[in-house]
Amino acid sequence: MKENIIKHQKGVALVIALIILLVLTLIGISAIRTTTFEISISGNERAGTDAFYAAEAGIQEGILQLQTTTPIARKALRRDLYYWSGTAQDKPNGAPLGSLGEYHRSGYDSSWAFKRYQINSTGESSGGIKEIEMQVTYGPFSASTVYNN
């Protein structure tokens, strides 16, 4: 009786080997798809980070030209990295820096005032766009008439 059972199981090892090979192939395909997806995510993150730093460069340039509040035109930091003042809609022509007027600050008497500005900057890198908004205080300035004897 034992001889008949062994004779009927000659191809089982081949079927099991093929099933194991199929499972390993599916695991390999899944690993490749996951890796491709992760590479895409890291590329998008890098483009976003580069765009953020480009927008930060625009903020720094805006701080340097607070007195004029002129727009910052689209400037290239390298081939695919740009910044300008304003939002993404202001890409062709930068928006002027916004003056928020003067205000008095605690610790200073009424003869002194500070000027407030709002700087919006946008950075772009490989399709990634980041916008930064910053309010800056500048001063103190004499806010009233000074009488000299």
Structure description:
Strands 1, 2, 3, 4 and 5 form a five-stranded antiparallel beta sheet that branches. The chain has one domain. It has 149 residues and is α+β, with helices and mostly antiparallel strands. The chain contains two helices and five strands; from the N terminus they run ααβββββ.
Main attributes?
149 residues; alpha+beta; 5-stranded antiparallel β-sheet; 2 helices; 30% strand
Provide a brief overview of the structure.
This protein is 40% helix and 30% strand.
Termini separation (Å)?
129 Å
Low-confidence stretches: none
Radius of gyration: 32 Å
Provide mean pLDDT, rounded: 87
Major sheet description? 5 strands, antiparallel
SSE topology sketch:
Blueprint: H1 2-8, H2 12-64, E1 75-78, E2 81-85, E3 98-103, E4 112-125, E5 128-142
Antiparallel strand pairs: 1-2, 2-4, 3-4, 4-5
